[in-house]
Amino acid sequence: MENSLISPYVTERIRRFDGTLIGVCHSAPFMLSAQRDNRCVNDSDIISLQDQLPKPADLIVVPVTGNTLTHVLQCIENYSVLQKENVRLAINYASLQQGGTVLRDAAQHFSFWLYDIAPPGMEWKNMADFPFDGIVLTDEFFSDNYLKFSFPFLLASLREREAEIILRTPQLALPEHSYSDLQLTGWQQQRTSSQLLEG
C-alpha cells in the first residue's frame, strides 16, 4: 500500500560531499493517523520506502514538532518504528526547550537531529547537554558565519560528540573540500522553505 501522506516528492536527499547518498529527510512534519489505535500512518511504509530509496539502510530523517512531538513522547511504546537504527527525529530548538526532561529521557529510545542551532535567545548549554546524533545548519547561518574565526571551533566541538554536521542548502556554493575542511560531514539538498520546522 502506498503512503499518500509522505510523498517521495517531498523528500530532501542527504549526501556526503563526494556525492554518496546517506539518506533522506521528509520536508513536511510527520503526520499521525486518525485511526483509533493512534499508530503512525502506514508506519511500515514510511520506514521501508522500498520504491523510493536506493537501499533500505539509508538514514530516514522525520521532522516532528508541536503536538506531534508531544504525542510521540507520551506514547513512546507506540512508535517502535521510529526507534529503528536508521531513523532520526528532526526537532528544532523550540522543541528542545519545551521537551525538557521528557525529551532527554526519550533520547534513550530515539535518535535526534537538531535543525535550528541559532534562534534568537538560544542558550548554548541547552544544546550542548543534549545527545544529538546530528546538527543541521541552515544555508543562511552557514553563509553568515563560515568565514568567522570561531566557526571551525564551533563545528569541532560538535564533531567531538561524533554528531553528523549537515548543511541544508539548495546548492553547494563552495568547492566540496571546503566543507570537509570546515568539519561538515554532508549536505541536505533543500527543496522547500528555509525552515524545515515551524514554531
UniProtKB/TrEMBL annotation:
<protein>
    <submittedName>
        <fullName>Uncharacterized protein</fullName>
    </submittedName>
</protein>
